[in-house]
Amino acid sequence: MGEFSITIKGLSVLRSELSASDLQLLENAEQVSKNAYAPYSQFFVGAALRLDNGTIVLGTNQENVAYPSGLCAERVALFSASTNYPNMPVSAMAITVNTAKSFITVPLSPCGNCRQVIMEYQHKQKQPIRLILGGQGDIVWIFEDASALLPFGFEADYLKNS
Length: 162
Ligand code: THU
Fold this sequence. Notes:
Blueprint: E1 11-14, H1 20-32, E2 44-51, E3 56-60, H2 73-84, E4 90-98, H3 112-125, E5 130-133, E6 139-143
Parallel strand pairs: 4-5
Antiparallel strand pairs: 1-6, 2-3, 2-4, 5-6
Bound molecules: tetrahydrodeoxyuridine.
Tetrahydrodeoxyuridine is lined by residues 38, 41, 43, 45, 61, 63, 70, 72-74, 108, 110-111, 114.
């Protein structure tokens, strides 16, 4: 028997401490969250990706009366980037939420399905995706590598024939 533990390395910063480019990406996510189609949850999520060529790709959550048919903002943005810029690596992704229902002081953390999808593209492009997670308060969390959020994720190696 052996015990093990993992350490998740992230950075908690105030909005005012963000670099100009991180702040710009977060503002893009905030701005686009207004376009979320979230009549059921009233939880308006915005995601903004910065690609290596400087292009910004945006996404918002899209809900459906048949609940599982909807999709999170992160996946809308990533699938759009993969469709329109298939070989252009994603260098950073900012995510944030706006909702009148409650005041989210801690940054929004992507759901498990989105983490899995983020990791798929991170593996494909062989370079880390920097995550900038915002909320409705002043605190922003930064992770240099998206893998920090998905320890023990399901990876392609499991499907390899030995
Ligand atoms: N949602 C996102 O878009 N991203 C997340 O990281 C968490 C949840 C959406 C899905 C649904 O439309 C609403 O937020 C409430 O779960």
